[in-house]
Amino acid sequence: xxxxxxxxxxxxxxxxxxxxxxxxxxxxxxxxxxxxxxxxxxxxxxxxxxxxxxxxxxxxxxxxxxxxxxxxxxxxxxxxxxxxxxxxxxxxxxxxxxxxxxxxxxxxxxxxxxxxxxxxxxxxxxxxxxxxxxxxxxxxx
Length: 141
What we know:
Helix 2 (84-95) crosses helix 3 (114-126). The protein is 30% helix and 13% strand. 10% of the residues are buried. It has a five-stranded mixed β-sheet with strand order 3-2-1-4-5, covered by helices on one side. It is of the alpha/beta class. A hairpin with a 5-residue loop joins strand 1 (64-68) and strand 2. It is built from three helices and five strands; from the N terminus they run H-E-E-E-H-E-H-E. GO terms for molecular function: transmembrane transporter activity. It is a single-pass membrane protein; Single-pass type II membrane protein. One of its GO terms (biological process) is protein transport.
């Protein structure tokens, strides 16, 4: 805080006004720092992102459940599938059915998701139209 004192020979009154120039300088420097350091994300392609929603879907008896365990093994219901080629062959038989059943993928949260990617690739190669993921809702609390 600064106090302006008049020069010699002027009136003896003390001017007790606050000098705001240093305050304005500091604020302008802070504004410039914030403008430079805050990353401004600017996307050039306008897209409408999907909204998060939870849907409870009842599984039908004809739906196929593929599971991935912690070691990356793929299971057709409870039977282990040996290799991606065997999975594709089984999925091709399912893809030929009318109406085509859905594939539900259950992936262990501690597993490497490479196996889930292999399931999706196998579904694509076999011509499966509907693939869904089975998840658990987050704990309430």
